[in-house]
Amino acid sequence: MVRHERELRQFTQQALADLAGLSQGAVARIERGDRLPSLPTVERLFAALDRQLRVEVESLDSHLDAALDALAE
């Protein structure tokens, strides 16, 4: 998601890193999945991209239940 949002805004990794207070290498490792960032780091990255992180909780497999309900209608 970080890479996708960064590319949508046509930011370089360095530009995003500067805005988020990280190194370009850290952004690259996060985008590749080599580094699991902390929640505050993810929030800083998305804030630099003018985005807000939203976390939701739902029942396990609720997306399947909704799909089945839609098919039943």
Describe this structure in words.
The chain has 73 residues and is an all-alpha fold. The chain has a single domain, classed as lambda repressor-like DNA-binding domains (434 Repressor (Amino-terminal Domain), Orthogonal Bundle), CATH 1.10.260.40. It is 62% helix and 0% strand. It contains 5 helices and no strands. α2 (13-20) packs across α3 (24-32) and α2 packs across α4. The longest helix is centred in the C-terminal third of the chain and has 11 residues, at 62-72. It is elongated. The termini are far apart.
Which properties best describe this structure?
mainly alpha; single chain; elongated; 73 residues; 434 Repressor (Amino-terminal Domain)
The largest sheet is: none
Tell me which CATH architecture applies here: Orthogonal Bundle
Percent of residues in beta strands:
under 5%
H/E series, N to C?
HHHHH
The strand count comes to: 0
Silhouette: elongated
Low-confidence stretches: none
Looking at CATH, the homologous superfamily is lambda repressor-like DNA-binding domains
- Helix/strand-derived category reads mainly alpha
Task: Work out the helix count.
Answer: 5
Number of domains as seen in the coordinates:
1
Q: CATH class, please?
A: Mainly Alpha
